[in-house]
Amino acid sequence: LAPAARKNLSIAEFTTLPGSRFPLESASDADIGANAQLSYTLSPSEYFTVEEENSNSRSKSLFLVLTKPLDRETLPVHRLVLTASDGGRPSLTGTVELVISVLDINDNAPQFNQSVYSVHLLEDALEGTVLVRVNATDPDLGTYGEVIYEIDTIVPPSASGIFSIDAKSGDIRLTDALDFETVAFYDLQIKAKDKGTPPLSGHCKVLVEVLDVNDNAPEVWVTSLSVPVPEDASVGTVVALLSVSDRDSGANGRVRCAVWPAAPFGLVSTFAGSYSLVLREALDRERVSEYEVEVRAEDGGSPSLRGRRGVRVPVSDVNDNAPAFAQAVYTVLARENNAAGAELARLWARDPDEADNGRVRYSVWEGGVGGVASAGGGWRPASSYVSVDAESGRLWALQPLDYEEVQVLQFEVRAVDAGEPPLCGNATVQLFVVDENDNAPALLPAGSGGPGPGVSGEAASGALWAWAAWGAPAGQVVAKIRAVDADSGYNAWLRYELWEPRGKGPFRVGLYSGEVSTARALEEADGPRQRLVIVVRDHGEPARSATATLSVSLVEGTEAALAAAGSSLSSGAVLRAGLRPAEGGAAATGAAATTNVWLVVAICAVSSLFLLAVVLYGASRWAPRAGVLSGPGPATLVCASEVGSWSYSQRQSRSLCVADGAGKSDLMVFSPNFPPPPGPAAKETQPEPPALLDTVSVPHCLASRPFPTPLLPSVPFLFCSFTLFSPLCPFSLTPWAGGEGIRDEPPGPAGSGFSFRM
């Protein structure tokens, strides 16, 4: 056998082809002949066999033949036993161990332990988080087995910067933020390669699934908006279409919606993610002209996120409001004799609508209750006195106003807007003409007031005549000056003054009554005639006056009576001279008889009037107070003035009186003297009635009309009718209930009043 007991061989894997022969050292046998003939056997192997080569040479060559390619990764070392046997009996053998080392080549690519890696990662994972570690092995040796990792491809390609891999360890890390709503799934192809030449590589797949977190608030979008909304839009009108979405998924993407404020709009879900903003209540632009509606959305995540969207909904105007005046009734005071075109008042009507719907024009409404009866008996509309500016509502006079023609002018002013259809509102204007002292007192004709003291003459010329008997006592009325003033109130309150003669003359004039009476007993020394100049003044500012000249003839008593009777029979005829009876003649006898008859008639008439006055006085004093015009205290005078009404005088009286013979409606109203309450205090507080009467004037608007109950005290009603008549007081006092009044509204709660007719 060979000297060495082991033989080492190195054979490269795969590159050595089957059939390759590797020489071996032959064995030797010291024997000769048949004992020296050697044969070889190899231990069983699928990769190798042994062959001998016969040649002409004395020695034979021995070869190890490769029958199958070697694979170092399968069996890196082959250990075989080669046995040599001789031909002797018994044969002897020798062995040698063949150690065959398989040389490595780069014939193996790196292999991953998994072909697919699945990773679940929350989208809010931080940068640097390790997703997974991949592992690949290469059975080759040396540099052939060293593996390098890299990301081959990423799907989607836009995510190339999101992940990174460690080339040596195979750790895959997160290098950027994830967004589930952008990419929810990533596919990474990982390659592992060795350092062979050429390098071999292996591949695996890493599937990254991003898990959603509630990081997106709901979003609300307005897809359609129908504005402005008419204020008369019906309930259910669709104002806007909304789209609501949440990029999250699952419960994080389920959204609940609501609208704030809850009225007058609401949300109606049409289909998934779509809503309609509808009208739930009626609109009123004058109350709210624009709404700021907020649609709020909230998802079902934990914690939940909210989104909102503001919607501005303007309300368009419709003509649903009529112009409205600040007052239903305007009271306007205007002085008479005002200049034409003078501004009397400004009226203003508010229309809360806008644009043309709120543009107001004014006019005096001819269809309303307005106008006044003219002095000629015709009817004049209010538009002939006043006009209103269509744009500004300024009320101005078309002509100077005359209190003696019209005291109260009531009419309606209409305000109409420019809407379609137009709407209108009305206001009543009560124009009170305030009296100015523009009329001087006027003397009345003598004898026009009925029986009275003897006086005759022409009032127009201011010359009057009267007769007085010598020896007449002081205080005897010899004449009465009758005058009237067309004005009212203080302007028509007359006073009489004796202008001539001044000093202590035989006559005096009642300050307010106009009665000319004797200041002392008349004597023959006073002469046959007295000339009196009487000035009649009103109380206006400035005061106006008229002058009357009264000639008083002093005659015998019978002549004065005949003169007075003649004046009564002739009803104001002028008596130029007194009657002188003829002594001892028939004329004297007839005159005396006539005088006696008239004296009897006069005495009876005066007595009757006195008794009637006493009865009426008693009835008004102790009867129920239905006939009393006012209670105790200051008298109330109903009269138009600059301040509407005024009270005059603290004096106490029950008299109602106008100037004798006047057709003018002047009225005096005084409070009566009620019986004082029992006790000493009553006597101290009860004032004494004055001797003189105070006369005032009542506006024509109140004359010959019933006074409504609010002007009278609440006293028990007396169903009766009093007729007061005397030469000085031609009044009729008639109770009434309901019916006509001086105002348009009904009477007071009692529904009753008194009518004074003259």
TrEMBL record:
Q: Name one GO biological process term.
A: homophilic cell adhesion via plasma membrane adhesion molecules
Instruction: Give GO MF terms, alphabetically.
Output: calcium ion binding
What GO cellular component term, any one, is given? plasma membrane
Give the transmembrane ranges.
Answer: 597-619
> Which keywords accompany this UniProt record?
Calcium, Cell adhesion, Cell membrane, Glycoprotein, Membrane, Repeat, Signal, Transmembrane, Transmembrane helix
| Gene3D superfamilies attached to this UniProt entry | Cadherins
- Chief localization class? membrane
Alphabetized InterPro entries for the sequence:
Cadherin-like_dom, Cadherin-like_sf, Cadherin_CS, Protocadherin/Cadherin-CA
Q: What is this protein called?
A: Protocadherin alpha-1
Q: Which organism is it from?
A: Columba livia
